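User: tokens in, sequence out, please.
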């Protein structure tokens, strides 16, 4: 897609429309997002970010794992947020929000080079997100003005989504993550409400220790969307 404010901000797929949100059309798209939030039963979410600074050991405790999440999320910048709202009657509405905060040309913006290269190969134009993306502080401020926390809360669906949740909470609150895991859990409950992690539930459903793509294949769900990293690919 060509850069520029004249683009419609929409990507057509076989069964749905993925609406792209940039700095120049955020004002037009935000009312639809808030309306979808108010009417949705479930919201599937996914994030894109520039990798990890701290790798967590496999057998780390929950508290140790959270401290690595906190260090990573507090020191890195969100690139994209995908939200897919599921309402009554099977209605589905999807938005992909690109943020301008991460500057791929700046050595001061923390990243994993391998992760950045993967994002590029997956079709994310990091120069365009920097040039045309939404300012995260402005986005957070507008959501608070719209009383995001006071609105009806749907169930949020993730897949191994601790980082997705952490980045979304950071975005909504506009500040660093709380210092401890119990405080983080309390903030998640107040900000988002109930969370359903499909990866976690899979442990109790016949031992599904699979990635999202393999899990979808196993249960006969065909991924949809406009690219490997796009929110429309979330079943």
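Assistant: Sequence out:
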């Amino acid at each position: 897609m060509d850069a520029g404010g004249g683009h419609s901000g929409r990507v057509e797929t076989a069964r749905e429309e993925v609406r792209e949100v940039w700095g120049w059309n955020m004002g037009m798209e935000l009312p639809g997002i808030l309306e979808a939030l108010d009417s949705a039963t479930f919201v599937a979410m996914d994030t894109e970010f520039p990798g990890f600074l701290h790798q967590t050991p496999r057998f780390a405790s929950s508290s140790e794992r959270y401290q690595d999440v906190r260090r990573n999320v507090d020191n890195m910048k969100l690139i994209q947020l995908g939200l897919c709202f599921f309402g009554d009657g099977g209605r589905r509405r999807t938005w992909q929000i690109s943020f301008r905060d991460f500057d791929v040309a700046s050595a001061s913006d923390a990243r994993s080079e391998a992760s950045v290269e993967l994002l590029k190969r997956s079709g994310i134009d990091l120069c365009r997100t920097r040039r045309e993306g939404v300012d995260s502080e402005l986005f957070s401020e507008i959501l608070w003005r719209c009383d995001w926390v006071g609105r009806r809360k749907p169930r949020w669906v993730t897949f191994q989504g601790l980082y997705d949740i952490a980045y979304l909470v950071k975005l909504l609150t506009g500040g660093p993550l709380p210092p401890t895991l119990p405080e983080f859990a309390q903030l998640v409950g107040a900000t988002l409400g109930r969370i359903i992690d499909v990866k976690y539930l899979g442990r109790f459903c016949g031992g599904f220790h699979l990635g999202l793509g393999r899990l979808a294949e196993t249960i006969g769900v065909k991924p949809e969307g406009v690219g490997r990293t796009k929110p429309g690919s979330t079943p």
